[in-house]
Specification:
With 117 residues, this protein is mainly beta. The chain has no helices and eleven strands. The strands form two sheets. Strands 2, 4, 5, 6, 9, 10 and 11 form a seven-stranded mixed sheet that branches. A four-stranded antiparallel sheet has the order 1-3-8-7, with no helix packed on it. The protein is globular. It starts with a strand and ends with a strand. The relative contact order is 0.31.
Amino acid sequence: QVQLVESGGGLVQPGGSLRLSCAASGFPFFRNVMSWYRQRPGKERERVARITNAGGAYREYADSVKGRFTISRDNDKNTVYLQMDSVKPEDTAVYYCHTTRSGVEYWGQGTQVTVSS
């Protein structure tokens, strides 16, 4: 079955960096578009970044993170990453890995990122 397992969250100071990882299994990873979403306290879940399948030639970012976050993938490791630089307190959220297969959405369990001094 499809499994998405996030890791790498934690406490980071404003202006710092963090890298999230999402290990995928149960489907042909290289064929799937992969995304990162987040849910900030009191807010709806929102998409942060998306990367196309195979070589990941196309990447898309929310305006709020453009220029600060970078999504990438390693198809040999079945892993998608989110490099978070110049983080801000408003980046505090639970971050989720996401994909779809045959019209069904799949989510990881989420990893908490807290940006605070």
